[in-house]
Give the backbone structure.
Amino acid sequence: MLPRICLAMTALLLAGCAGLSNLRKEHVATPAPPSNEAIQAAQLARYMGDLQTVVQGSPTEQAEVMASARAGYDQARQGPAALRYGLLLAAPSHPARDAAQAQRLLREALARPELLNTLERGLAVVELQRVEAELRLTTEGERLVAELQRERERQRTVPNNTALTRRLQTEVEENARLRKALDEARAKLDAIATIERNISNRPPGAPAAPANEGRNP
C-alpha cells in the first residue's frame, strides 16, 4: 500500500513541476510589447548615434551614414526618412553638410506631422529654427561684405575725383592768369600803336608829344 502512495505522490510532483515549467516557458515566450515611450527613445537614440558618427566618425563612417540616410529618403521622401536626412545635412563639421537642403528636408518632414512621433516633431522644429537662423545670419553676413566692398570701391574712386577736381581748378586759375597777362600785353601794344600813330600824324617841325600821350590815364 505504501509503495503505491509514494508512486502516486511522485507522479503528482512530476506533473506539478511540468506544469510550472510550461507556465514559465509561456511567460518567457510572450514578452510584453515595448511602450510608445520606449519606441520614441530608441528612435531618438538612433538619430543621436547617426549625428555623432557624421560629426566625429572617420570619412568612411561619415560616407556610410550619409549614403544610408540618402537611400532611405529616396525611398520614402517624407516623415522620419526626411527628418533623418535633414538632421544629418544640418550637422556641423562634415563634408556633406548643406544647410539650405537641410532646411528644405526639415520642412518636408514637418509638412506631414502625423508621420512623426512627439519627440521627432520637437526635434524637427528645434533644428529647423536653428538652421533658418543660421541661413539668415549667412545672408546678412554676405550683404555686409558686399556693402563693405562697395564702400571700398567708392573710397578708391574718391581720391581720383578729388585729384581731378584739383587739377581742373589749377587749370582754371592758370587760364585766368594767362588771360590777365594777355590783356596786359594787348594794352601795352595798343599804347605803343597809339604813340606810333601820333608820331606819324605829327606835322614836320611840330614839337614832340608828351611821353604819356595816347596812354591810358
Observations:
- The mean pLDDT is 78.
- The CA atoms of residues 43 and 49 lie 10 Å apart.
